[in-house]
Design goal:
Blueprint lengths: L1 E6 L2 H13 L4 E6 L5 E3 L2 E3 L1 H11 L16 H8 L11 H15 L4 H12 L4 E4 L6 E8 L3 E6 H7 L8 E5 L10 H7 L2 E4 L8 H5 L4 H6 L3 E4 L2 E2 L2 E2 L4 H7 L6 H8 L6 E4 L12 E4 L7 H19 L1
Parallel strand pairs: 1-2, 1-9, 2-5, 9-10, 10-13, 13-14
Antiparallel strand pairs: 3-4, 6-7, 6-8, 11-12
Helix pairs in contact: 1-2, 1-12, 2-5, 4-5
The structure holds ligand FO1.
Ligand FO1 binds next to helix 2 and helix 6.
Length: 313
């Protein structure tokens, strides 16, 4: 069985670990969000790709959900000692090695998809991890800064330095319009038996992947089941509410289900607290959504997969 999942960061990666356990014999292709990517200290950092790679490869800092386990920050401290910023993005010594290898390969002319394949040869995540595109796409946020006035900042600055505390007046995936799906992305979607949307951020993760021309239609041609990232009006983790507000969407399982809509979704898994949710043209089912431990995560992934196979007939 061929499964394709669109994944962002922490929630997506954890769901994929459960999916791999729920369908060990399936061929799973992950289309990873690259809108969070940022260049720092001359290095290309791909947070969502790395979170999937480390989480499925056994190298993730489980508590944080991002970055490497057993991390140290000597390089970060030395950079700060030189007064070289930014200091707000926590790059660890082990993590730096990933960005050095990636940047070296990109500089040698390898595309991001080839680089990601090379990095995954070490981590062996048990899925095929494809970036959504090999072209540069970065999510930027327009804010009105008290001192500096209205300006566009990188998503990571809004997310990490400001903790999304300043309202985002608009969020845009800069470069998405001119981006092409990475090699293998459209073929994977064409050959898929089912497509799953993990409980990733619907705006800056799933939404950004769908913004790459060609991907939305290729996804829509499949049987698609999504898992709500919102339970009872609040995001399970992260700050999806700040992102949804920025695009004028209510923070609810119903609103996110409608945001994806029947043009994309065939099925939508919501929490028991949202059992009354209805989305026109979409089969809504309620069940526990919290990925509180590996068993719960596996059961959730199994439920999403089973619903997709049920709706496919
Ligand atoms: N998130 C934070 O909240 N603080 C950090 O200092 C931070 C550093 C970081 C370094 C590498 C990396 O791959 C991810 C990192 N993240 C950090 C998480 C990152 O902002 C998010 O994972 C995504 O971009 C949103 O899903």
């Amino acid at each position: 069985m061929k499964i394709v999942a669109l994944a962002g960061g922490i929630g997506g990666a954890r769901f994929l670990r459960g999916l791999r356990a729920a369908a060990p014999e399936a061929e799973i292709t992950v289309i990873g969000n690259t809108g969070d990517d940022i260049s720092l200290f001359g290095l290309r950092v791909c947070p969502d790709l790395d979170t999937v790679m480390y989480t499925l490869g056994g190298g993730i800092d489980e508590e944080q959900g991002w970055g490497r386990s057993g991390e140290t920050f000597a390089v970060k401290d030395e950079l700060a000692a030189y007064g070289v910023g930014p200091s707000w993005f926590g790059l660890g010594d082990r993590d730096f090695a990933t960005h050095i290898v990636r940047t070296q390969m990109l500089a040698a002319g390898y595309k991001l998809s080839a680089v990601t394949e090379a990095l995954c040869a070490r981590w062996r995540p048990g899925v095929r991890l494809l970036p959504m595109t090999d072209d540069q796409v970065e999510t930027h946020v327009v804010v009105t800064d008290p001192e500096k006035g209205r300006r566009a900042i990188h998503f990571q600055e809004w997310w990490v330095r400001l903790r999304a505390s300043v309202p985002a007046e608009s969020i845009g995936a800069v470069g998405a319009d001119d981006a092409k799906p990475a090699p293998g992305v459209l073929a994977a979607l064409d050959e898929a038996d089912v497509v799953l949307f993990p409980p990733s951020n619907p705006v800056v993760s799933i939404g950004t992947i769908l913004a790459v021309p060609g991907i939305r239609d290729a996804v829509a041609a499949n049987t698609v089941v999504g898992v709500s990232p919102i339970i009872g009006g609040a995001p399970v983790r992260g700050m999806a509410d700040a992102c949804l507000t920025a695009i004028g969407v209510e923070t609810s399982a119903a609103a996110v289900g409608a945001l994806y809509g029947p043009g994309l979704l065939d099925g939508w898994l919501v929490a028991e607290a949202d059992a009354d949710v209805r989305v026109d043209g979409v089969e809504v089912r309620s069940r526990p959504l919290l990925m509180s431990d590996p068993e719960a995560t596996e059961e959730l992934a199994r439920a999403a997969l089973d619903l997709a196979l049920e709706l496919k007939r």
